Amino acid sequence: MITADYHTHTAYSEDSETSPEAMVKRAVALGLKTLCITDHMDYLFPEKYAPETFVFDPRAYFKQLLSLREAYRGRLEIRIGVELGLRSEPDVRTACIGHCKKLAASYPFDFIIGSTHVLEHTDPYYPEYWESHSAAEGMQTYFESILESTENYNMFQVCGHLDYLVRYLPQETKNGEKVPRDYCFADYKELIGKILKKLIESGRGIEVNTAAYKYGLPFAHPRTEILKLYKQLGGEILTIGSDAHATEHMAHGFARAEEMLCSLGFRYYTVYRERTPAFLPLG
């Protein structure tokens, strides 16, 4: 049984209104043993989306989470994490790397996720990105951006929600009905393989992000073909995260994800404390 949720958001994230204590109380109610709160820190988020900034005050963050850690000691292990938004565009990459390095060096995070949320100065969550990009072009740019960030950012422990862009692909219709969003793994296998090899070589891993189930996808992020390839290449580090922004989504799909991972031959998942991995049994 998976008892640790390693990707959750609170009101410190721009896209959540849930208090940290509400998330903690829900984790206790669910019987989780460990909760890692990983709020968004997306430095240099495109100004066109103002007032959205996706940054928070890390001093206030640590003060509140450390207080909760003490208050719930013996009932729940609270780990303090962050989800860094990695940028690969040449005009912002160096500055973003600098901000991320400084944050990671200045605060004792237990766990850092590295995620790609912006492509070519645009958040592909919004339809405007797809007005000038086909689904194939978007996926290619996305995986290329992740590979570049994996090579240039060295402060994160796992790559977040690899292949999550599929959630926002333009939805086609066939015979008057909407076709489920998807992409062909084979088209990007070589590129994805390079990402996975780089992560493995540098002692980092990937997360299994179960929010995909919430979006109606038949697989978690990343899809099973990527997880199979990761295992074939020798990958072992797998954190499990719901990517919950509200209490009702915490630990969503964990039983389904565990069954899937066991069927692929994985026997352990990973938790972090002081950025050091530990392995817990699946099944």
Task: Give a summary of the structure in a few sentences.
With 283 residues, this protein is α/β, with parallel strands linked by helices. It has nine helices and eleven strands. Helix 5 (135-152) packs parallel to helix 6 (185-201) and helix 6 (185-201) crosses helix 8 (224-232).
- What is the alpha-carbon Rg in Å? 18 Å
Strand content: 15-25%
Which blocks of ≥5 consecutive residues have pLDDT under 50? none
Shape: globular
| Amino-to-carboxy terminus distance | 6 Å
| Overall CATH class | Alpha Beta
CATH architecture assignment name: Alpha-Beta Barrel
Query: How much helix, percentage-wise, in residues?
Result: 25-40%
Number of domains: 1
Number of strands: 11
Strand-pairing-aware structural class: alpha/beta
Sequence of strands across the biggest β-sheet: 1-2-3-4-5-8-9
Average pLDDT, all residues: 96
Corresponding CATH superfamily: Metal-dependent hydrolases
The main β sheet shows up as:
7 strands, parallel
Describe this structure in words.
The chain is of the alpha/beta class. It has a single domain, classed as Metal-dependent hydrolases (TIM Barrel). 37% of the residues lie in helices and 19% in strands. It has nine helices and eleven strands. It has helices spanning 20-30, 58-71, 90-106, 127-130, 135-152, 185-201, 211-214, 224-232, 254-263, and strands spanning 4-8, 34-41, 77-85, 111-115, 158-159, 173-174, 177-178, 205-209, 238-241, 268-273, 276-281. The strands form three sheets. A seven-stranded parallel beta sheet has the order 1-2-3-4-5-8-9. Strands 6-7 form a two-stranded antiparallel ribbon. α5 packs parallel to α6 (185-201) and α6 packs across α8 (224-232). It is globular. The termini are close together. The mean pLDDT is 96.
